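Quick illustration, no need to memorize.
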Amino acid sequence: MSLQRRLFYAIPPDLRFWVRRLWYFPHDLVFHYLNPSRSLMPPKGLIFVGSGDFIGQGERFLEHFIQLGGLQPEHQVLDIGCGIGRMAIPLTRYLDPASGRYEGFDIMPVGINWCQQHISANHANFRFRLVSLYNDLYKTDAAEDGRNFRFPYNSNQFNFSFLTSVFTHMLPEETENYLKEISRVSKKGGHCFVTFFVLDAAAEKQIKENKASFDFSYDMGDYRLLDLHAKAGNVAYKIDWLQQRLQLAGLEVKAFYPGSWRGTPDSVDFQDIFVLEKV
């Protein structure tokens, strides 16, 4: 693990956010707050997930959703861990405003507030909800975590759902519950596009040969961690455990795309991708 990442995880979650805001304030003042045309691009100081090209990443994943996941303009879509709208922004141009609908939820108020003010205000078929859940990487002032959380939606509601870099920040009992909830709120035959760090034989080989981006050196049994001080920082699941939980949740693997984190060329994206179907 890099020194930069180790130092970042050592900072308390609330302080990380303010450090980022201060660091990017000069940039945001010049390129965002004084530039009204960028109203559908959050200031860098408010972006609390991911790195790199915010808009470009959203556009790339929209193509993945369509080409790999089977997303259609008329679908009812659920964004689990919607952040500050990275995936929602391109979806505003794709989902049919009359028949398509988007629902997203997240644990971070800054992301939900921004999305409500800049996306929902202009797109009536887009709705964002704040949920209060503990996560040692992002939010430590909540009493409950995701182990018993029930998604605030009806059963059999969505054609398509997605989680990008969400299960990579969740521990096993939370992940198991979320998989069951995804199945519950999905229509039969509905698809879920989801990313993981998966420890299968190929990934284990790359890690042993020091070819992978992460070594996940802390073995916890069914999963491995990158850092014990921020357990939700990066979590990798062993393939046998994950396959069993998917089966128990009633989710069938339709496709698997290994990620470039393993050190393999020509990958679809950095993390491993599953396309799941509710059976």
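Residues 101 and 125 are 5 Å apart (CA to CA).
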